[in-house]
C-alpha cells in the first residue's frame, strides 16, 4: 500500500518538475516530428514496402516505427533524471525517510510514462496532419498505443539501471541513446525487413522493438498492400511477442534497478 | 540505560580508508552532542551510519531504542536528517517540498498540508512558500531543509554541518532555530567544523579525528583539560623575552610558549586575577616593559590543537599555513590522545593566535 502511495508521490514530484522545465518536453518532441517530416517527404517516395512504392503506403507503414522509436527514447529521460537525483543531496533525504525502497525509481518511470503518452499524443496529431490514417476500429488502435506505452515503460527501466550505473546525467543521456539507434534501425521500423540481407533480417525479426512495430501495424491497419510477414514467430504473432518482450524487459530491468538502488551507497 | 543515540565500536571502511575506526557515542535523551572535527575526520560517515544511509562494517548503533542495522525502517520513522547540502528539490516550491516529505513519512495528504503550512510559518518562509526553491537564498534553503527534517517532529535529529557556507547573520538565525528546537526536548547530534558552533549549541562535545572520538566532555571540561586559564604577555622589547619567560615559568602550570617575532609569551596558570597581578608586579620589578597582558580561557581551538596536534581546518583559513605545520611538528598532541594530564598537550600550535600578518613562525620555540 505504502509502496503505491510513495511511488505516486514521487511521480507527482517529477511531473511538477517536468511542468516547470517544459523545454525537456519540447525537445523530446522535436526529434520525432523531424523524423516524421523527413521520412515522409524525403524518403517517402523511394522506399518500397510490400509490393507498393506509393507515398501514402509508406507514410502509413512508417508511423508505427516512429511511434515505437519515440517511446524508447524515454530511456534517456529516465536515466538522466535518476542519475541527477542520485548525485544530489535529495537522495539522502529520500533514503532516510520511511518510504518504500523502489518508490524513487517507480515514481520516476511513471512520470516518464505520462510524458511519453503526451509526446505520443502530439506526434499522432502531427502524423494525421501529414496524412497518416488508421483502418481498424478504435479499440484496436488504442490497443496499439497501449503496446507502445508498455514498451516505453519497460525501456524506462533500462534507463533507470543506466542512470544508477553512471556518474553524471550527461553520461546517462548518451548511455541511454547510443544503443537505441542500432536497435531501432536494425528493425522493421523504417524499412521492410524482408528486403534486408538474411543475417540482418533475422536480427530484425527477433528484435523486441520490431514485434511492437509489427503489432501496431496490424492493429492500426497499416500493413502495406502485398506485404507478407515472414515466418519468424514474432512476426506471425506480433501482439503476443510484443507483450512478452515488454513484460520480460520490465521484470528483468526493474529487479536489477531496484537492487542497484538499494546497494548504491550502502 | 543507553541514550537516545548510542554507538559502540562503529567501524566503516571504504577501500583502504578507515573512515570510522571504532566510534563510541552516547547521547542522553534531550541533549545535544556536537561532533567536532576537521574535514575527513569521519563525522559525516558517522551520521550516515546512524541515519541508516550506510551500513557499518562492525559495531552497534541504537537510535531511539532501535537497532540501526536490524530495524532501519523503524529508525527512519523516528529521525530527522538535515544534511550538509540542502536536500530540497529546487524545482518544487517550499510548500510542495514539505508536503512531499510529509507524504513520504506516511502522513495523509491533509495532515501533510497542514504541517507544511505550520513549518513554513515557523521558519519564516510563508512569503516564499509558493516559489520554487531554486529562487531561495542559501539561508532560506537551509531553513527549508531543516523544516523538512522536522515534518514529523522526530524525537531524534541529526544535522550534518547545518551552517557550513552560511554568512554570519544566517548562521546566527539558524542557531536560534536549533536552540528553540532543542528546548522542546529533541535529542540532537550535530556535526560541525566550527568550534564556536559546538561551543554555542552543544551540551557535550565529542572531538573526532581519523575516525575516532579522541575526547569527549562539556565545553568547560575540554577546556579545563587543556590547562585552565592562560596568561598572555606581549613584551615591548624583544631582548626581554628570555627574562619574561623565566618569570612566567615561575608562575606557570605547564609549558611556556614563546612567539618571538610577536614578542608574545603564553603560559597556563591557575590562580586567576590575583595571580595576574603578581605576574605584573614581578615583571615590573625586573624592569620588563609590557605592551599587553591578559588572562584568557582556552578556546576550543586550543583544545583541538592540544588533542590532535593540528588546527581544525576552518581555523587554518584565518591562520597562516606555516602556523599549522609548526603545530604539528612540535605536536605533543599524540600524548594528549592517550593521557589525561591536562598539561601535556599545551604549547603546541601557537598559530591560533597568529593573525594573517604572521608569516614567519620559525622564530617560535617552546621552552620548558
Automatic annotation (TrEMBL), chain A:
It is a multi-pass membrane protein. It is found in: Cell membrane; Membrane. It comes from the Bacteria. One of its GO terms (molecular function) is ABC-type transporter activity. GO terms for cellular component: ATP-binding cassette (ABC) transporter complex. Residues 23-264 form the ABC transmembrane type-2 domain. Its main location: membrane. Coiled coil: none annotated. This is Transport permease protein. It comes from Streptomyces fumanus.
TrEMBL record, chain B:
One of its GO terms (molecular function) is ABC-type xenobiotic transporter activity. This is ABC-type xenobiotic transporter. It comes from the Bacteria. Coiled coil: none annotated. GO terms for biological process: daunorubicin transport; doxorubicin transport; response to antibiotic. NCBIfam families: drrA. It holds the Pfam family DrrA1-3_C. Transmembrane segments: none annotated. It is an enzyme of class 7 (translocase). The keyword Membrane applies. Its EC number is 7.6.2.2. Keywords: Antibiotic resistance, ATP-binding, Cell membrane, Membrane, Nucleotide-binding, Translocase, Transport. Belongs to the ABC transporter superfamily. Drug exporter-1 (DrugE1) (TC 3.A.1.105) family. It comes from Streptomyces fumanus. InterPro entries: AAA+_ATPase, ABC_transporter-like_ATP-bd, ABC_transporter-like_CS, ABC_transporter_ATP-binding, DrrA, DrrA1/2-like_C, P-loop_NTPase. Residues 315-345 have a biased composition (Low complexity). It is found in: Cell membrane. It is a peripheral membrane protein.
